[in-house]
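Methods: holo model generation. Sequences were used as deposited, without trimming of termini or removal of tags, and paired with ligand SMILES retrieved from the corresponding compound records. Each pair was processed once, and we did not select among multiple samples. The sequence and flavin mononucleotide SMILES for this entry were:
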Amino acid sequence: MRVAVGLPVTVKHRIGIDKTESYTFVRDFVGTVAEAGCEVFVVHARNAWLKGISPKENRELPPLRYELVRQLKREFPALTIVLNGGVKTNDQIAEQLDDVDGVMLGREPYYHPWLMTDWDARFFGESPVERDRDEIEAQMVAYMQRVVAGGEPWSHVSRHMLGLRNGLPGARRWRQVWSDHRLKQVDPAEVSRLARESAEAFA
Ligand SMILES: Cc1cc2nc3c(=O)[nH]c(=O)nc-3n(C[C@H](O)[C@H](O)[C@H](O)COP(=O)(O)O)c2cc1C
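and the model returned the structure below.
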């Protein structure tokens, strides 16, 4: 892959397969792949159980073992080691960053995207920015309108922002309006207005 493309090659992997739980297994894997020229490893800190459980269960059941990821960083300090799996809060991110180069989050920011609002300031040294959910929704609506103009339904976009108001009063009503398939021919600006109106009524 290194020869075939000019882009950096990165690898995302787990720490073991089935009941293979020794550190040497993942260490040898990373060492071998690094020798081929890969410098970035995103490590989901649990084994993959290949039989008997679903992909969803495979993201919950095998126990998390962050220590192995930290050990990889100590053993390969020149590589970029990114920790992934089960991280839910910004304090947990900060704690992990003491020992590894990066942290990848999957589910938590997908379901609670507001978590991401202070990342630029907290982790990348940028000036703090006050953010507003209505403003973000308006930007998403503008994007949906471009998507609709290109012939795709706006729901392809909206389905990924349904967590925007999670934790706030009226969030469920707001989500229900955005998910209402009877509105699929309606301009997303109007859907947004209806959704916010509905959230306010039930807040
Ligand atoms: C719906 C869904 C789809 C996923 N698809 C992929 C994928 O295609 N490739 C991949 O490497 N990981 C995939 N993952 C796993 C995530 O990248 C991540 O490793 C996993 O969710 C653990 O991180 P988390 O605990 O922060 O969610 C997926 C996760 C979810 C929830």
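The chain has two domains: 10-124, 133-202.
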